[in-house]
Amino acid sequence: MPEVHLITDPGDDRLGDYRALTDLELRTKWEPPNGLFIAEGELVLRRALRAGYRPRSYLIDEKRTDQIADLPGDAPIYAATPAVLEEATGFHVHRGVLASFHRSPLLSAGDVIATARRVAVLEDVNNHTNIGAVFRGAAALGIDAVLLSPTCADPLYRRSVRVSMGEVFAVPYARLEPWPAGLDLLRQAGFTVLALTPDATAVPLQRLTDDQRAKTALLLGAEGPGLSKHALAASDVPVKIPMRRNVDSLNIAAAAAVAFWELGRDDPDT
């Protein structure tokens, strides 16, 4: 285990990666250009390590150093009291464990779909909680890759990573540009582009033909507005989840989970 450095000053320069973690605008403008992201909690930290991400440093509650005694590598470990952690980060670190990681080079859309059979494609999903929840569902329910329109939120933002329970590390993703013309890349690769919509005239997911289900790219829109007319026009088949009691839609995380399960329901048990 690397040496543990006790930090007593919240303004210590060594904690630069962890400053103002609750400032969404600051963090989303600062983290990607500087090639880092923050993982919160021991479980998420270990999933990031398992996925091959390289740690820059760790910041932990001084009473929890034994929890991470087996961490590999030589990234510095900083320990502090809860009060110092809170002042440095801007919130109560109730899980007691944070880590800063180097980002990996972003894959191309062609890379992530090369061996995929089912892909989720998100348009304008800029809520980090929803991004994390969709990735968790994708990992659990057989989605091989996720493609993001240019305006989607960062899957490696701390809240997205936390909500996904680290499953953002398990599903390869890429930005799809230009949008929505980039959807042609999926069609050229043999995918049927399905657009999930509450439109009453759409095809119920369970009534897709075998050919339509063989290799699918499922388009999901943002909470509220749903898919744009341009994305709908660029799709092959509008599909819907049949609803009861006059409910017109589900939130994106729930809708995605239902659709993911339906598209993979005939997979062999794993």
Write up this protein.
This protein is α/β, with parallel strands linked by helices and 270 residues long. The protein has 2 domains: 99 residues, 60s Ribosomal Protein L30, Chain: A (2-Layer Sandwich), CATH 3.30.1330.30; 155 residues, 3-Layer(aba) Sandwich (Alpha/beta knot). The protein has 10 helices and 12 strands. It has a 7-stranded parallel sheet. The chain has a 5-stranded mixed sheet with strand order 1-4-3-5-2. Strand 6, helix 5 and strand 7 form a beta-alpha-beta unit. The protein is elongated. The mean pLDDT is 94.
* Count of beta strands: 12
C-alpha termini separation: 36 Å
Helix and strand sequence: EHEHEEHEHEHEHEHEEHEHEH
Share of helix, binned: 25-40%
The order of strands across the largest sheet is 8-7-6-11-9-12-10
Element layout with pairings:
Blueprint: E1 4-6, H1 24-30, E2 36-40, H2 42-50, E3 55-61, E4 77-80, H3 82-89, E5 97-102, H4 109-113, E6 118-123, H5 128-140, E7 145-148, H6 158-163, E8 173-175, H7 183-188, E9 192-196, E10 203-204, H8 210-214, E11 216-221, H9 229-233, E12 237-240, H10 252-263
Parallel strand pairs: 1-4, 3-4, 6-7, 6-11, 7-8, 9-11, 9-12, 10-12
Antiparallel strand pairs: 2-5, 3-5
Short description:
The protein has 270 residues and is of the alpha/beta class. It contains ten helices and twelve strands.
Characteristic terms for this protein:
10 helices, 270 residues, 60s Ribosomal Protein L30, Chain: A, seven-stranded parallel beta sheet, single chain, 2 domains, Alpha/beta knot
